[in-house]
TrEMBL record:
<feature type="transmembrane region" description="Helical">
    <location>
        <begin position="126"/>
        <end position="144"/>
    </location>
</feature>
<dbReference type="GO" id="GO:0031669">
    <property type="term" value="P:cellular response to nutrient levels"/>
</dbReference>
<keyword id="KW-0592">Phosphate transport</keyword>
<feature type="transmembrane region" description="Helical">
    <location>
        <begin position="374"/>
        <end position="393"/>
    </location>
</feature>
<keyword id="KW-0769">Symport</keyword>
<dbReference type="GO" id="GO:0015293">
    <property type="term" value="F:symporter activity"/>
</dbReference>
<dbReference type="InterPro" id="IPR020846">
    <property type="entry name" value="MFS_dom"/>
</dbReference>
<keyword id="KW-0813">Transport</keyword>
<feature type="domain" description="Major facilitator superfamily (MFS) profile">
    <location>
        <begin position="25"/>
        <end position="509"/>
    </location>
</feature>
<protein>
    <recommendedName>
        <fullName>Major facilitator superfamily (MFS) profile domain-containing protein</fullName>
    </recommendedName>
</protein>
<feature type="transmembrane region" description="Helical">
    <location>
        <begin position="214"/>
        <end position="233"/>
    </location>
</feature>
<dbReference type="InterPro" id="IPR004738">
    <property type="entry name" value="Phos_permease"/>
</dbReference>
<feature type="transmembrane region" description="Helical">
    <location>
        <begin position="348"/>
        <end position="368"/>
    </location>
</feature>
<dbReference type="GO" id="GO:0036377">
    <property type="term" value="P:arbuscular mycorrhizal association"/>
</dbReference>
<feature type="transmembrane region" description="Helical">
    <location>
        <begin position="405"/>
        <end position="424"/>
    </location>
</feature>
<dbReference type="GO" id="GO:0016020">
    <property type="term" value="C:membrane"/>
</dbReference>
<keyword id="KW-0812">Transmembrane</keyword>
Length: 533
């Protein structure tokens, strides 16, 4: 709704010049994504080390690895927590307000990061169980940050640069990935220099050493640092003016908050009579018949495209170990000690992120308000489809040593077009196209659909991509459909994502109230006495 007493307020927000507060809001809002990416990056390194420390088989020619069910639990429990957090905090953000819930998510991340590093137990099983417990709650906190950060940034931004600012919040993931790589390399290099150890093939027990148990704990606990540094500023942020005016219905307070943080001076007007009329027109509930008529296809579009892109995006991590070994970045595990292996995997993942993943985020930031969300999403799905099929159809060709570099380039490009494409836009659009009173909830539903896709991508394809020949599968896994067929399926997933993008409207250059139809609600309620934006 945009009654006359709120029109000036919303107009001022939409026309406000880009200023320091917008950039400050990006950093404060983006810390959840920084922590999310840092944790996801580090846990793949940590699982290698946990295998060596806790699951070493005496006399084995190779270092220990986590059993498939333990690896799935350690990696997957945070994704499950994220899914639950997206739904719960998305709903809570609409009920209590963005600000009241925003600090809780960061506090949860800080406590859970430290708890993950302090995982205790007298046996491998109890250590893994404790680690999984804290990782679930870490994911729960991270999940809450998805709908809240996107909604807060959308509601503070002007309509001209809104896309870039929401994209910049999401792009903080890129810095989280790079920070994860730097921390992992620094900690492993320091321990490796201080505590010299032979290669596994020379001394299986001595190659890991008792100090290795501190390394993974330090890496995980350092994830709490960026969250702790921004906690104070997050608590100082006022409620978003749009929530205060449109949901809490206090235009006067919204005006005061805007004046305080953005230097926008204006006089609020009380419009009690008109608000009563608008409340009546604006009373349809979430998932009611009226909601489904207005926004049902939009919610289907945002949830389904996010679900599909995360299947493809998270399954891409399957190929990393093959790629790193193929291009000689990663020697065989038994030729290295634990710290060397950790350093080399961190370095390889860091380079892939630096050259493929991170640039994609920033291409989106700089271009989204020029070419639009819809176009970027179509471009991303199109090229992800092309590259998946290019990898899949001549798959044997790419396994030959002389073609390894080409394989790495195409692999890097799929990451680039995921981020300069649907991985970014599926985060941005749900924060723009739904009414203020449902915005956080609908973003949470869309994001939770994405995380369901991530769980399928990360674990379904871990099993699916196993060799069809049972004698060639990884230890502990059944035979699958093979890598080539898995890539073909992922190509089809991207085709479906491309088609479902047509359900989602283009929000570029329009006010949030215009896109969500809140202006239209006012028109229907009071056709003559209400001014609309």
């Amino acid at each position: 709704m945009a009654a006359k007493g709120q029109v000036d307020l919303l107009l001022k927000l939409d026309q406000a010049k880009t200023q320091l507060y917008h950039f400050k809001a990006v950093i404060i809002s983006g810390m959840g994504f920084f922590t999310d990416a840092y944790d996801l990056f580090c846990i793949s390194l940590v699982t290698k080390l946990l295998g060596r420390i806790y699951y070493q088989v005496e006399g084995s020619p190779k270092p220990g690895i986590l059993p498939p069910n333990v690896a799935a639990a350690v990696n997957g429990v945070a994704l499950c927590g994220t899914l639950a957090g997206q739904l719960f905090f998305g709903w809570l953000g609409d009920k209590l307000g963005r600000k009241h819930v925003f600090g809780i998510t960061l506090l949860l991340m800080m406590i859970s990061s430290i708890g993950s590093g302090l995982s205790f137990g007298s046996s491998p099983k109890t250590v893994m169980a404790t680690l999984c417990f804290f990782r679930f709650w870490l994911g729960f906190g991270i999940g809450g940050d998805y709908p809240l950060s996107a909604t807060i940034m959308a509601e503070y931004s002007n309509k001209k640069t809104r896309g870039a600012f929401i994209a910049a919040v999401f792009a903080m993931q890129g810095f989280g990935i790079l920070a994860g790589g730097i921390v992992a390399m620094a900690v492993s290099a320091t321990f490796g220099a201080v505590y010299k150890a032979p290669a596994y093939s020379v001394d299986p027990i001595g190659s890991t050493g008792p100090q290795a148990d501190y390394v993974w704990r330090i890496i995980l606990m350092l994830g709490a640092l960026p969250a702790a540094l921004t906690y104070y500023w997050r608590m100082k942020m006022p409620e978003t003016p749009r929530y205060t005016a449109l949901v809490a219905k206090n235009a006067e307070k919204a005006s005061r908050d805007m004046s305080k943080v953005m230097g926008i001076e204006m006089q609020a007007q009380e419009e009690v009579g008109e608000e009563k009329v608008i409340n009546k027109s604006n009373s349809f509930g979430l998932l009611s018949e009226e909601f489904l008529r207005r926004h049902g296809l939009h919610l289907l579009g945002t949830a389904s495209t996010w679900f599909l892109v995360d299947i493809a995006y998270y399954s891409q991590n399957l190929f990393q170990k093959d790629i790193f070994s193929a291009v000689g970045w990663l020697p065989r595990a038994n030729t290295m000690n634990a710290m060397e292996e950790l350093f080399k995997i961190a370095k390889a993942q860091f380079l892939i992120a630096l050259c493929g993943t991170v640039p994609g985020y920033w291409f989106t930031v700089f271009l989204i308000d020029y070419i639009g969300r819809f176009t970027i999403q179509l471009i991303g799905f199109f090229f992800m489809t092309v590259f998946m099929f290019v990898l899949a159809i001549p798959y044997h060709h790419w396994t030959l040593k002389e073609n390894n570099i080409g394989f790495v380039v195409i692999y890097g490009l799929t990451f680039f077009f995921a981020n300069f494409g649907p991985n970014s836009t599926t985060f941005i659009v749900p924060a723009e196209i739904f009414p203020a009173r449902f915005r956080s909830t609908c973003h949470g539903i869309s994001a939770a659909a994405g995380k369901a896709g991530a769980i399928i991508g990360a674990f379904g394809f871990l099993y699916a991509a196993q060799n069809q020949d049972k004698s060639k599968v990884d230890p502990g896994y059944p035979a699958g459909i093979g890598m080539k067929n898995s890539l073909m399926v992922l190509g089809m997933v991207n085709v479906l994502g491309f088609l479902l993008t047509f359900l989602v409207p283009e929000p570029k250059g329009r006010s949030l109230e215009e896109i969500s139809g809140e202006n239209e609600e006012v028109d229907q309620a009071h056709p003559t006495g209400v001014e609309i934006v």
